[in-house]
Amino acid sequence: MADIVQHVQQQQQEVEEEEDLKKLILPDISCLPVSPPSSVVTNFVRYFALDFMKPGHDQYVYRHANGLCVIGLAPTHVALKSEGGVSSVDFNVGKSDRSEFKVTGKRKKNAQHFQPNSILCNVQSGDTSYIIRCCVKGSLLEVNNRLMNNPGLLNTSADRDGYVAIVMPRPADWLKIKETLVTFDEFTKQRKLE
After folding, report:
1. CA-to-CA distance for 114 and 116, rounded, in angstroms?
2. Could you state one GO cellular component term attached to this entry (predicted)?
3. Alpha helix segments (H runs only) across the chain
4. pLDDT digits (tens, 9 = 90+) for 106-148
């Protein structure tokens, strides 16, 4: 009789362990978000440069774990708020056309070294032209050439396909720059986006 009771208890314990395992593997559907988080949210730490050089010139700096920073226009940038949004993007600024240089190799040969106030491009919105700056001290690795043919990406998808550039700051430079930026939570509070 004791063997039967022990066998029943063992089966009950196995069933309970199996249920616990199912709970770990299969999430409760009611606890899942309506849509999965975007790749920006899961892969980057989001920082913002508020009123960078001029009022209303808010830009984002999304930093990846590998140290690369993606630079773009924050949703509160004045160019995105004007009627009609951004109509053209020009990477030809001053003495050089940012869209024509190419960075190659592991050591990022030919990379241009930029200061935070270095100009990346000019953005036309309505009758006004806005200067978009680097925000980060580092090596410019790439600009988003698709913006020249499709500037509307800034209006519809500024935080993904409408990024402006990718910059690689040195770790010591990043620590200094990070102090001047605000986090996503601070950005939403200061711009009252909650």
Report:
1. 7
2. nucleus
3. 2-25, 39-43, 78-81, 146-149, 153-157, 171-178, 184-190
4. 767 778 899 999 999 999 998 899 999 999 999 999 999 999 9
Cβ atoms of 122 and 138 closer than 8 Å: no
Q: Residues near 137 by Cβ (< 8 Å), separated by ≥ 6?
A: 114, 115, 116, 169, 170, 173, 176, 177
Smallest CA-to-CA distance from 86 within 159, 158, 164, 152 is with 152
* Secondary structure (3-state) at 176: helix
Task: For 57-106, write each residue's pLDDT tens digit.
Answer: 999 999 999 999 999 999 999 999 888 889 999 999 888 887 777 777 77
Model pLDDT for residues 137-157, shown as the tens digit of each residue:
999 999 999 999 999 999 998
Q: In what order do the strands lie in the sheet with 138-143?
A: 112-114, 138-143, 165-168, 69-73, 59-64, 44-49, 182-183
How far, in Å, CA of 94 to CA of 112, rounded? 14
